[in-house]
């Protein structure tokens, strides 16, 4: 059985974090230099690594440096040898834990060597086994109603191309055919309509869909992501602000959702009148980066109907929710509908990025949806094996079980520390809780790390829990005990 050893050590990363959060980078660097000069190698590993990196990169977001060779399962090891229970997993991106034996075996298989060594430009020169590997991996978990998939590299790149697919689909629908006019061709080259049409995508306040230019226009979680970057005049609808636990506030929450849905329809009409019709609606099944905000299955089904009624494509961004962490492979499966979306994008736990889509959203000409890599076949190999492990070890059931224990534990702690904790919420292990203020949240995150638990924040003052699918009830209890100790220090 895995046993956690926690070494108490003041790490330089902690100092860095505290200093950075107070915008004292210069002072911080001076502290690093002084500490680096200390005899005896005290915290010098992290110190020197940061110093090396800071000379050519912004290091403001770095927590600490890791030893991935020594990391196993749910435990991440840092360069000082501290072993931490990882409840954040590289921003929700490690599906079956660190160094899973099934993945190591795959790497050791000589038949796979050429896939790892020769990364192809998939859009023009795919390997022989590419169709089979996609069938075995991504297509075996395709969302209901979708038989087509386009691989990409990261989440933003997937969403960016999904948006383009929606615009192309919408314009062809407007034209009634897919032959552009001479004017379309000439005007698109100088960024003018009708070749570059005034279409829009409706997104939600608090949503996060990435930081590339198109995605950023639909991201509204934190100003730091958007500041100084030009954007589009696209409609932004309110996302329901629900009260938790959801079961205790059904009437109030239904009213709040109805208000938001009404606003969505109003915005669609307004933007059509402005001459910027809404080609697509994009939404996360649970707003993650924006603060783990939930909405009911009925809200999503109604929104899907609104999209259909107004002729907009419906894009569900499952980059963070996809891959099993909610207890179902896709979070939208909780909505109980056979026709959840026109596009579903993914990345993170799926290892490769990409998006599934309905037949009609297939781009009609080569190079319209294209880039050099178009994904990475080695990630499809890994994904096929990850899916085998998920099935073989019944990991979705495991997530449901651990998720229940985690949420119940959070409810108990919330009752115990009402001055600190509120709004515990979750689906599967995709859970979160609010902290009384941002400063206390950050202090809790640091203290938890010093006690051997790695957590992440989201929204203004929430902590999000994003363990791997191999996070068992045993790990939940380990975590809850440590979290309890940390909270007691803040009482
Ligand atoms: C819902 C969602 N969409 C898109 C993205 C962007 O993905 P990436 O950071 O891989 O570009 C993220 C990343 O956190 C996300 O959570």
Automatic annotation (TrEMBL):
Gene3D superfamilies recorded: Aspartate Aminotransferase, domain 1, Type I PLP-dependent aspartate aminotransferase-like (Major domain)
EC number assigned by the record: 2.6.1.19, 2.6.1.22
GO biological process, alphabetically ordered: gamma-aminobutyric acid catabolic process
A single GO molecular function term of this UniProt record: 4-aminobutyrate:2-oxoglutarate transaminase activity
Question: So which domain of life are we looking at?
Answer: Eukaryota
Q: Which InterPro entries match?
A: 4NH2But_aminotransferase_euk, Aminotrans_3, Aminotrans_3_PPA_site, PyrdxlP-dep_Trfase, PyrdxlP-dep_Trfase_major, PyrdxlP-dep_Trfase_small
| Entry keyword set | Aminotransferase, Membrane, Neurotransmitter degradation, Pyridoxal phosphate, Transferase, Transmembrane, Transmembrane helix
For this protein, the record's SUPFAM superfamilies field holds: PLP-dependent transferases
Q: Name one GO cellular component term.
A: mitochondrion
What reaction gets catalysed by this protein?
Answer: (S)-3-amino-2-methylpropanoate + 2-oxoglutarate = 2-methyl-3-oxopropanoate + L-glutamate; 4-aminobutanoate + 2-oxoglutarate = succinate semialdehyde + L-glutamate
Q: What class of enzyme is it?
A: transferase
Pfam families for this protein:
Aminotran_3
- Record's keyword annotation contains Transmembrane helix: yes
Kindly list the cofactors needed. Answer: pyridoxal 5'-phosphate
Transmembrane residue ranges: 20-51
Q: What exactly does this protein do?
A: Catalyzes the conversion of gamma-aminobutyrate and L-beta-aminoisobutyrate to succinate semialdehyde and methylmalonate semialdehyde, respectively. Can also convert delta-aminovalerate and beta-alanine.
Subunit: Homodimer; disulfide-linked.
By sequence similarity, the record places it as follows:
Belongs to the class-III pyridoxal-phosphate-dependent aminotransferase family.
- Write the protein's name: 4-aminobutyrate aminotransferase, mitochondrial
Q: What is the lineage of its organism?
A: Eukaryota, Metazoa, Chordata, Craniata, Vertebrata
């Amino acid at each position: 059985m895995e046993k956690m050893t926690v070494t108490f050590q003041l790490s330089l990363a902690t100092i860095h974090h505290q200093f950075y959060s107070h915008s004292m980078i210069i002072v911080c660097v001076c502290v690093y230099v002084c500490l680096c000069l200390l005899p005896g190698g005290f915290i010098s590993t992290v110190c020197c690594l940061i110093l090396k990196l800071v000379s050519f990169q912004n290091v403001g977001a770095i927590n600490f440096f890791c030893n991935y060779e020594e990391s196993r399962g749910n435990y991440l090891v840092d360069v000082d040898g501290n072993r931490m229970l990882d409840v954040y997993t590289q921003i929700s991106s490690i599906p079956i834990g660190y160094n899973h034996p099934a993945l190591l075996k795959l790497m050791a298989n000589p038949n796979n060597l050429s896939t790892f060594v020769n990364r192809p430009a998939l859009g023009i020169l795919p390997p022989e086994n590419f169709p089979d590997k996609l069938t075995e991996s991504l297509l075996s978990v395709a969302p209901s109603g979708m038989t087509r998939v386009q691989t990409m590299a990261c989440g933003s790149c997937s969403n960016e191309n999904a948006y383009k697919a929606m615009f192309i689909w919408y314009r062809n629908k407007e034209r009634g055919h897919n032959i552009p006019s001479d004017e379309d061709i000439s005007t698109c080259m100088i960024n003018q309509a009708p070749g570059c049409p005034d279409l829009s995508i409706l997104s939600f306040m608090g949503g996060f869909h990435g930081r590339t230019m198109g995605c950023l226009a639909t991201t509204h979680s934190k100003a730091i992501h958007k500041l100084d970057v030009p954007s589009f005049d696209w409609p932004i609808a309110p996302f329901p602000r629900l009260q938790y636990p959801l079961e205790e506030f059904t009437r109030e929450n239904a009213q709040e959702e109805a208000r938001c849905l009404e606003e969505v329809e109003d915005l669609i009409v307004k933007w059509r009148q402005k001459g910027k019709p809404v080609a697509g609606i994009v939404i996360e099944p649970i707003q993650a980066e924006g603060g783990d905000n939930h909405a009911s299955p009925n809200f999503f089904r109604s929104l899907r109907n609104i999209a259909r009624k107004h002729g907009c494509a419906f894009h569900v961004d499952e980059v963070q929710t996809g891959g099993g962490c909610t207890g179902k492979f896709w979070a939208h499966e909780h909505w109980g509908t056979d026709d959840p979306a026109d596009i579903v994008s993914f990345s993170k736990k799926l290892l490769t990025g990409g998006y599934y889509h309905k037949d009609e959203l297939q781009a009609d000409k080569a190079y319209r949806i294209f880039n050099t890599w178009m994904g990475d076949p080695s990630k499809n190999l890994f994904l096929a094996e990850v899916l085998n492990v998920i099935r073989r070890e019944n990991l979705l059931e495991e997530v449901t079980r651990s998720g229940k224990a985690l949420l119940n534990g959070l409810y108990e702690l919330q009752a115990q520390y009402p001055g600190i904790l509120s709004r515990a919420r979750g689906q599967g292990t995709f859970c979160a809780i609010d902290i009384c203020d941002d400063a206390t949240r950050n202090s809790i995150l640091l203290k938890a790390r010093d006690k051997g638990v790695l957590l992440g924040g989201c929204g203004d003052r929430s902590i999000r829990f994003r363990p791997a699918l191999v996070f068992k009830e045993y790990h939940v209890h380990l975590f809850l005990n440590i979290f309890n100790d940390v909270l007691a220090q803040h009482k």
